[in-house]
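Quick start: what a row looks like.
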Amino acid sequence: MKKQIDLFELRREVFHILVGIGFVLIMLFLPWPRTFLFFVLIFGGFMSFLSTRIHLPLVGNCLCLFERDCNRGFPGRGVLFFFAGSLLSLQLFSREIALASILILTFADPISHFVGQNFGKTIFLNKRKYIEGTILGILVGGFFASFFVGVFVGFVGAFAAMFVESVEIAMAGETIDDNLVIPLVAGTVMYFVGQVFVF
């Protein structure tokens, strides 16, 4: 039976990619990207908290377009964790590794999810993950990461990130958001691979 494409999820994945591209452009062209993005994260966190207390028309409209029902208790969860994971990568790793990690998060995560859910046939490690999506995520994420860290390091980082994303990591009974895990795993692996294999 042919799967029907989920337009809501497609909209979410496109938004995810656009946020990631915007993040990378800010890092490349603004003079103080960390400071700017930190204040954006703080402002976003404040707006998320405020929207749970009062109705904010613009925020409410955005939530209707992009937020899953399961995250309504934490509005903007995905974007906030995207910024948090990316900022941690900027703080922990070199600029090149941080950019590569964020590009893996930007492209590999949404592509693997969308392709897996809509076209995948083979379940991989997790009943909600499909190997077709994971493989394509590795290929696309590794491709974009390779612009900053080289082909080998980029693809190893993408592989590690997608493997961990497929397993899912939980803490205190709660699954840790992919947007936080992926850039940190990718960055850590690429850092150590870069230390061992010097080209």
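That is the whole record. The radius of gyration is 17 Å. The first helix runs from residue 7 to 29.
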